[in-house]
Write a structure and sequence with these properties.
heterodimer; A: mainly alpha; 9 helices; 0% strand; B: mainly alpha; two-stranded antiparallel ribbon; 25 helices; globular; disordered C terminus; DUF112_TM (chain B); transmembrane helix (chain B)
Chain lengths: 229, 527
C-alpha cells in the first residue's frame, strides 16, 4: 500500500470521525440553526467518502495515480524531467498555503528512514525554487538534526505551555516554557552558561511582554498563583 | 463640490496633524504586528485617548492608527507566518515562503508599496465615489452576502493544488468550526461540548494564529537548521538598489495593484466583510489572472502585493458606508463610528456639507497616513525584518510562541482560548501532512458566519414567499454574484483547456507540459 493511499485513508477516517463527533452533538432544533451545520456535516461525510473511496480504488488498481513525488516515478521515467521538476515545485511548496510545506517532504523522508533524504527534504521548501534561481543549496546547521522525538516533544511542550498559561500565569509558565523551547531547539542544554543565558533572555522577554500588555495595553494577563504576580 | 476641503488641507499639513499621523501609524503598526491584537482591539484601546482631543485630531489619530495596524499585520505574516491581523491571512501564503527563501526584505518592500497604493486608492474612492456607491451597498441583502461567502469559498480551488476534494474537505472543516457557539440567527447553542466558554464560538484570531503560527513554530523546533540556511541566504542576497528595484517591480504591474485596490475598496464598503475577506479575494483574483498561477504559494511577489493592497484599500472603502449612511463596513469602523458619535457628529450626507472641514480633514489625513506608510514602513518594517533575521532561532521561536499565547488569551481574556489555539495548531499541522490545507480551513472559519447569517436571514426575509429558496436566485445582484461564482469555478477548467490546447503541437498529448497542466490534471483526478 503506497504512502499516499495510507495518507488519504487516514484523512478520510479523520474527517469521518470529526463529522461523527459533531453529528452526535446536534442537540438543537431551531430550523434556521439546523440547516447549515447539518448541510456542512453531510458534505463532509460525502467528501470523506470520496477521499477514502478514491484511495481504496487506487489501492485496488495497484498503482497510485497521485503525483506525490515518489522518486521511483521519476526514475521509472513516468514523467519527462521538466514535468517532474514542475510537479515537484507544485507539490512541495515551502508554505502552508499549499498545505504541504517542507515539513511534509522532510517527514516523508524521515519516515522512509533516510537521514540524508530527510535533511535534503527539509530544505525542499526553498530548494526547488532556489535551484531554479541558480542559488546553491545551503546546508542545514547540523545535518541529521531531526530526531524522531523532536516532533512529539515540540507538540507536547506547546500543549503544556498552553495549559500552564492559565494555570500558572504568564511569568512562571512563560519563563519555564521559553527555556525548555530554547533547549529543545538547541537539542540540549548546551552547558551551564548557555542555560543561564537562556533563563536571562527568557526573563527579559517575558517581563517585557508582561509590562507592555498589562501596563501599556491594559490587557489583564493571567496571574501566577504560585509567585503571586 | 467639496465644501471646506481647502481648510481641511491646510489643517492636515500642519505640524500637529502630521505628528499625530506619524504617531498613529507607528502605534498602529506595533499593534498590528502583534498576533492577537487586531486593528479593532487597538482602536478600542485608543478610544479613551481621543476623549481628550478635539474631534478632528481624535479622528486623524484613529485613522492613522487604523492604516498602520492593517499594514503592520503583514510583518509577522511574512516573517513568522503569523498574520498580525485577520486582514493579512493571504499575505502568509506567499510572504512566509519568501522568508524561507531568504527574500523577506523584498516581501516587506513589496507590501509597503502595495499598502501605500491601496491606501491611496481607498481614500480616493471614499472621496470621489463614496456617496454614489453607498446606495449600491444598501441593495445588498442577506442573499447577496450568502453568495458573496460562496464566492469566497471558490478560492479553495486555488488553495488546493493537489486535490480539490481534500481542499473542500478542509474548507468544510473550517465551516464546521465556525458553527461552534451560539447560532447567529436562532440563538441555539451548538457544539460546545459542555464548555460554557465555547458559547461565543472559536474566535477567528485564535483560529488563524493556531492554524498558521503553531505549525510554523513546530517546523522550526523540529528543524531549526532550515531557518538558519534561509537567513544566510537572506544576508547574502542583501544588495544595494534592492529597494528601488522592488518598488519598480511592483509598480510595473499596475493591473494587479489596481484590481486589488478596487476589490479592497468595494469589499470594504460591504458591512460585515472587511479586510479579512478582501485580502483573500484579492489574492485569489491575482492568482486567477496570473500567467503563472502555479508559482503562487511558493513565494511570488504578486501574492503578497495583492492582499496587502486590498486590505489597505479597505480602510477607505469601509468608511464610505460609515460616513455616508452611518453603517460601519468593518468592526474597526464601528469604533470610529463611536468616536463620531461621542463628538456629536451624525454620519450622513450632511456630514460632508455641514461638517465638511472636519470630514475632509479626516479623509485627507487617511491619505497622508497612507503616504507615511512608505517611509515609516520601510524604516520600521525593514528594521523589524532585519532584527528577526538576526535573532537566533533558539530565542525567536519561544518569543513568537509567547506572543501567540498572549495574543490568543487577549482576545477574550480566556485561558481556554490559548489551549484551543494550540490544539487547532496541532490539528493544522496534522491536516497539512494529510494533504488537507490549513488555509482552506481558515477560509471556512472566516466565511462560515457570513454564509450562515446570509442563509438564515435570507430564508427568514423570504419566509412569506411560497418558495423562500427561490429568493437566492431571483434577485438581480444575487444573479450577478452567482455568475461570478460560476466563472470562478469554471476558470481552472478553462485554464486547463487553454493550456492543453497550447501544449498540443509542442509535446506529447498526455504529458503534463506545464505546472498548470499538472495541477489541472490533478484536479481532474480529484474530481
Amino acid at each position: 500500500m503506497s504512502r499516499d493511499v495510507i495518507r488519504d485513508l487516514v484523512a478520510a477516517g479523520l474527517i469521518l470521525a470529526v463529522a461523527a463527533l459533531f453529528w452526535t452533538r446536534q442537540d438543537f432544533d431551531t430550523p434556521s440553526d439546523v440547516i447549515f451545520p447539518r448541510f456542512v456535516l453531510v458534505v463532509l461525510i460525502v467528501l470523506a467518502t470520496a477521499v477514502g473511496g478514491g484511495a481504496l480504488l487506487r489501492m485496488r488498481r495497484g498503482a497510485s495515480p497521485t503525483r506525490s513525488g515518489t522518486p521511483d516515478a521519476d526514475a521509472a521515467g513516468e514523467l519527462p524531467p521538466e514535468a517532474a521538476r514542475m510537479r515537484d515545485r507544485n507539490e512541495n511548496p515551502p508554505t502552508a498555503a499549499e498545505g504541504v510545506p517542507a515539513g511534509t517532504a522532510a517527514a516523508a523522508a524521515e519516515a522512509a528512514g533516510s537521514p540524508h533524504a530527510s535533511g535534503a527534504a527539509a530544505r525542499t521548501g526553498a530548494g526547488a525554487d532556489e535551484a531554479e534561481d541558480g542559488d546553491e543549496e545551503e546546508p542545514a546547521d547540523s545535518p541529521g538534526e531531526r530526531p524522531r522525538w523532536a516532533l512529539p516533544a515540540a507538540a507536547a511542550l506547546l500543549l503544556a505551555w498552553g495549559a500552564a498559561f492559565g494555570l500558572f500565569g504568564i511569568t512562571l509558565s512563560g519563563v519555564v516554557a521559553f527555556v525548555l523551547a530554547a533547549v529543545l531547539i538547541r537539542r540540549g542544554p548546551g552547558g551551564t552558561r548557555r542555560l543561564l543565558l537562556d533563563v536571562a533572555v527568557a526573563l527579559v522577554v517575558v517581563l517585557f511582554c508582561w509590562a507592555v500588555f498589562t501596563r501599556l495595553l491594559y490587557v489583564p494577563l493571567p496571574v501566577s498563583v504560585i509567585l503571586g504576580v | 463640490m467639496f465644501p471646506g476641503i481647502d481648510e481641511a488641507l491646510a489643517q492636515v499639513v500642519s505640524p500637529t496633524m502630521l505628528a499625530l499621523c506619524l504617531v498613529g501609524v507607528i502605534a498602529g503598526m506595533a499593534v498590528g504586528a502583534t498576533p492577537g491584537l487586531s486593528a479593532t482591539v487597538g482602536l478600542a484601546l485608543l478610544l479613551p485617548i481621543t476623549f481628550t482631543l478635539d474631534p478632528a485630531r481624535g479622528l486623524v489619530l484613529m485613522g492613522a492608527f487604523y492604516s498602520g495596524a492593517i499594514y503592520g499585520g503583514s510583518f509577522t505574516a511574512i516573517l513568522v507566518n503569523s498574520p498580525g491581523t485577520p486582514s493579512s491571512i493571504a499575505t502568509t501564503f506567499d510572504g512566509y515562503p519568501m522568508t524561507r527563501k531568504g527574500r523577506s526584505e523584498v516581501a516587506i518592500i513589496a507590501v509597503t508599496t502595495g499598502s501605500v497604493v491601496g491606501g491611496l486608492v481607498g481614500v480616493v474612492g471614499l472621496l470621489l465615489l463614496g456617496p454614489a456607491i453607498a446606495d449600491v451597498v444598501l441593495a445588498f441583502g442577506p442573499q447577496e452576502y450568502f453568495w458573496l461567502g460562496i464566492f469566497g469559498l471558490t478560492m479553495i480551488a486555488g488553495l488546493a493544488a493537489k486535490s480539490l476534494v481534500k481542499g473542500f474537505a478542509a474548507g468544510f472543516i473550517g465551516l464546521l468550526i465556525s458553527t461552534i457557539g451560539i447560532a447567529p440567527v436562532g440563538g441555539d447553542v451548538r457544539f460546545t461540548f459542555g464548555f460554557t466558554q465555547m458559547q461565543a464560538g472559536v474566535p477567528l484570531i485564535v483560529a488563524l494564529i493556531g492554524f498558521f503560527t503553531i505549525p510554523a513554530m513546530i517546523d522550526l523546533m523540529v528543524d531549526p537548521g532550515s531557518r538558519a540556511a534561509a537567513m544566510r541566504r537572506e544576508a547574502r542576497r542583501r544588495e544595494p538598489g534592492l529597494l528601488m528595484r522592488t518598488v519598480r517591480d511592483v509598480l510595473s504591474r499596475p493591473v494587479n495593484l489596481a484590481r486589488s485596490a478596487v476589490i479592497g475598496t468595494f469589499v470594504g464598503m460591504l458591512p460585515g466583510a472587511g479586510g479579512n475577506v478582501a485580502n483573500l479575494i484579492a489574492y485569489n483574483e491575482a492568482k486567477r489572472a496570473s500567467k503563472t498561477p502555479e508559482e503562487f504559494g511558493t513565494g511570488k511577489v504578486d501574492g503578497v502585493v495583492a492582499p496587502e493592497t486590498a486590505n489597505n484599500a479597505v480602510v477607505g472603502g469601509g468608511l464610505i458606508p460609515l460616513l455616508t449612511l452611518g453603517i460601519p463596513g468593518a468592526p474597526a469602523d464601528a469604533v470610529i463610528f463611536g468616536v463620531l458619535m461621542l463628538h456629536g457628529l451624525r454620519p450622513g450626507a450632511d456630514l460632508f456639507t455641514e461638517q465638511g472641514s472636519l470630514t475632509f480633514t479626516f479623509i485627507l489625513a487617511l491619505g497622508v497616513s497612507a503616504l507615511l506608510l512608505a517611509p515609516v514602513g520601510l524604516i520600521v518594517g525593514r528594521g523589524l525584518q532585519r532584527a528577526v533575521v538576526r535573532t537566533p532561532t533558539t530565542y525567536l521561536v519561544p518569543a513568537i510562541a509567547l506572543l501567540t499565547m498572549i495574543g490568543a488569551y487577549a482576545v477574550r481574556n480566556n485561558p481556554l482560548d490559548v489551549v484551543i489555539m494550540v490544539a487547532l495548531g496541532l490539528l493544522g499541522y496534522g491536516l497539512r501532512h494529510l494533504g488537507l490545507p490549513p488555509p482552506a480551513v481558515v477560509l471556512g472559519v472566516v466565511l462560515g458566519p457570513i454564509i450562515e447569517s446570509g442563509l438564515g436571514q435570507g430564508l427568514l426575509t423570504a419566509s412569506g414567499d411560497a418558495q423562500p429558496w427561490l429568493s437566492f436566485f431571483t434577485r438581480p445582484i444575487s444573479v450577478g454574484i452567482i455568475a461570478v461564482v460560476l466563472i470562478a469555478l469554471l476558470w481552472p477548467v478553462l485554464g486547463r483547456w487553454r493550456a492543453q490546447r497550447a501544449a498540443r503541437p509542442a509535446g506529447p498529448p498526455d504529458g503534463p507540459e506545464t505546472g498548470r497542466g499538472a495541477e489541472g490534471t490533478e484536479r481532474e483526478d480529484a474530481r
